[in-house]
């Protein structure tokens, strides 16, 4: 089974949890963006599409931060390559927390995911509140996991073994163990 890592703005950090997982899961891959610092949605989506096309089997996408929105925009643009599932880790709310460099990733797509997924949200992430993360999980039909007080879950957090428990059901042949959500009202 392939884990395909979609990193966020500024790219991977040395020793981050994605790098640890990359070593731990044989056949996994991290694809590289042409420009990590000045993201262009269409370019990022194109790199994701290429990486999925190159995967030997339908991958489980492990997306962090802006990588989450890249996956969503790929789907919104008609991305239809087979994907087994996705773990969305601390997606950024580019609508409520506008950042000029990320303006091309707004608005956040509101669509139903065609594969099982989990949204992992931090209780103290400056980029998205837990309420908004729970709302988007519902809109996308994804499970929701409160991962505690871990900020934006950057490389400083090391291996993140708790996250491996979230990706495990996605690696199952049938994707079982993921509870899909109805979209709650956002207050």
UniProtKB/TrEMBL annotation:
GO MF, one annotated term: hydrolase activity
A Pfam short name: Ser_hydrolase
InterPro entries per record: AB_hydrolase_fold, RBBP9/YdeN
The protein's name in its UniProt record: Alpha/beta hydrolase
């Amino acid at each position: 089974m392939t884990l395909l890592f979609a990193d966020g703005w500024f790219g991977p950090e040395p020793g981050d949890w994605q790098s640890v997982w990359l070593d731990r899961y044989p056949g996994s891959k991290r694809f590289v963006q042409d420009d990590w610092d000045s993201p262009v949605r269409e370019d990022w989506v194109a790199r994701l599409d290429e990486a999925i096309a190159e995967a030997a089997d339908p991958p489980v996408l492990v997306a962090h931060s802006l990588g989450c929105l890249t996956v969503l925009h790929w789907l919104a643009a008609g991305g239809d390559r087979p994907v087994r599932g996705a773990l969305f880790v601390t997606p950024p709310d580019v609508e409520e927390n506008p950042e000029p460099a990320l303006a091309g990733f707004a608005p956040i797509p509101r669509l139903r995911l065609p594969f099982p997924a989990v949204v992992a949200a931090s209780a103290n992430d400056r980029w998205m509140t837990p309420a908004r993360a729970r709302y988007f999980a519902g809109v996308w039909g994804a499970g929701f996991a409160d991962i505690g007080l871990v900020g934006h879950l950057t490389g400083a957090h090391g291996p993140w073994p708790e996250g491996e428990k979230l990706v495990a059901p996605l690696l199952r042949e049938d994707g079982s163990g993921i509870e899909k959500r109805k979209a709650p009202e956002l207050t």
